[in-house]
Amino acid sequence: IIKLTCKTRSFDGFSMHSLENSLIDIMRAEQDSLKGRYGFSHQGGDVSLPMNGHSNLFPMGDEHSFGEDESGDQGLPGLGSAHCFPQLNGERVERYSRKVFVGGLPPDIDEDEITASFRRFGHLFVDWPHKAESKSYFPPKGYAFLLFQDESSVQDLIDACIEEDGKLYLCVSSPTIKDKPVQIRPWNLNDSDFVMDGSQPLDPRKTIFVGGVPRPLRAVELAMIMDRLYGGVCYAGIDTDPELKYPKGAGRVAFSNQQSYIAAISARFVQLQHGEIDKRVEVKPYVLDDQLCDECQGTRCGGKFAPFFCANVTCLQYYCEYCWAAIHSRAGREFHKPLVKEGGDRPRHISFRWN
């Protein structure tokens, strides 16, 4: 029996650190603006967080999706909103992404009919992968995204849903199918970050990039999986896009010790298993773009930031071009491949050519 349930949730009072303030900014020791405001205490280059808090610390990069290719997504013009949390009686009000996944749609439902089915909740735009290129009137894979103009529309949609086995459903009709339950999957912004051990400092040099994270996976679940596999997890974050705050398919995990970090990057690939999710994802070191060369401290490159990071466990250092060539001409290191930042966020391997 499917029955309508009233959903209430509790909130913690921890003030969310803005997505725009990345870990890189924190590592530059801009302590004055943070002390006493967000509960951060700086210890050298590290960052400490209170237990049970949430924090948007890491800038994120694009990666592969989990059955939801968003390369055809289009944003609504003028719908960008600041990532802030209103207060109600001193407690943070729960917030959702304005982008909502809807799956299991009738095969003959078109864009206008989808819009009509959800228009009562507010102004919206219907999108699906490769929509602009395909010119299709129907979502080809039976799912679509609802991009609402106002966040309050998402809460109204949730309130109208029926709940079964922890999933939300709403009945939608098409020309040939009447009242078909379709799955509604909103993204709770609180699920983007999880601090597992607030007593441990966050060190970007013990942080991994996880590519291909399934979009339904929450930060707490990513943290639990990685902690079960390698131990020592103190933080996990899910990459969300800057406008709609919806998962992009990548994440970050910070460890409290070098042993767990090395074990994770040595694996290169990890099988994420949680509930209905079972996917192999890629693991790489998290690469910063404002680090001096660990060999020369910038003396051989005019103080410029190091462009290369060596992810081999015998190195795990940042190098300028001069020091990379010098160190990696040695026997046993000539086959190491440098990692660089791609698109300002995502690390990628490059081929290094000797002059």
Give a verbal description of the structure.
- There is one protein chain.
- The chain is α+β, with helices and mostly antiparallel strands.
- The chain folds into three domains: 23-64 and 190-285, Alpha-Beta Plaits (2-Layer Sandwich), CATH 3.30.70.330; 98-185, Alpha-Beta Plaits, CATH 3.30.70.330; 289-355, 30s Ribosomal Protein S18.
- Helices cover 16% and strands 27% of the residues.
- It has seven helices and 20 strands.
- The protein has helices at residues 23-27, 111-118, 131-134, 151-160, 219-230, 258-267, 321-327; strands at residues 41-43, 46-48, 87-88, 91-92, 99-103, 124-127, 143-148, 162-164, 167-172, 180-185, 193-195, 207-211, 233-240, 247-255, 269-274, 277-285, 308-310, 317-319, 338-342, 346-349.
- The strands form five sheets. The chain has a six-stranded antiparallel sheet with strand order 6-7-5-10-9-8, with helices on one face. The protein has a six-stranded antiparallel sheet with strand order 11-13-14-12-16-15.
- A hairpin with a 2-residue loop joins strand 8 and strand 9 (167-172).
- The longest helix has 12 residues, at 219-230.
- It is elongated, with a radius of gyration of 22 Å.
- The termini are far apart.
- The model is unreliable at 1-85 and 349-355 (pLDDT under 50).
